[in-house]
Amino acid sequence: MSDLTDLYQEVILDHNRRPRNWGPLTDATRVAKGHNPLCGDRLTLYVKVEGGTLTGISFEGSGCAISKASASLMTDAVKGQSLTDALSLFDRVHDMLTTPIAEPVNTDEVGKMAVLSGVREFPARVKCASLAWHTLKSAILDTHQTAKTE
Ligand code: ZN
Q1: Do 11 and 113 form a contact (C-beta atoms < 8 A)?
Q2: Residue 21: left if φ>0, alpha if ψ -120 to 50, beta else—which one?
């Protein structure tokens, strides 16, 4: 198990150092903002929606390693997905993050996002990991409101 945890940490550190899909998306059709007051993480998410599909997505912001890595992993995972599939992944990741640490998570259902399951050991960090996902949901539902983690 500790080997797995190490691997997870490596992936998170890598995405924090070299975030994928970083920077504004010039042809974005929607922009959503997220804020996690508990940690101070801020995120701006740019998405391009064409015919019900997320054809483009990028982000920028400032925050801790977990929040940045989570946003990087999230953008990679949902790029090219339909809005319905992206929302369904949101639900599965949200379920994973809110599953008590003593219970196993079904990592098959969340793909690469399994690396975020380790944050359940640190309840305050769960919001860092879920910020990007809440912001994605705001963008998909086009709420025009800053996504808050509480
Ligand atoms: Zn944070």
Answers
A1: no
A2: left
- Beta carbons of 149 and 36 less than 8 angstroms apart: yes
59 CA from centroid of ligand 1 (Å): 15
pTM here is 0.93
The domain ranges of the chain are 3-148
Which residues of the chain carry a pLDDT beneath 70?
1-4
CA of residue 52 to ligand 1 center, whole Å: 31
Per-residue model confidence (pLDDT) at position 1: 45
CATH of domain 3-148: 3.90.1010.10
Query: How far is the centre of ligand 1, averaged over its atoms, from the C-alpha of 126 (Å)?
Result: 9
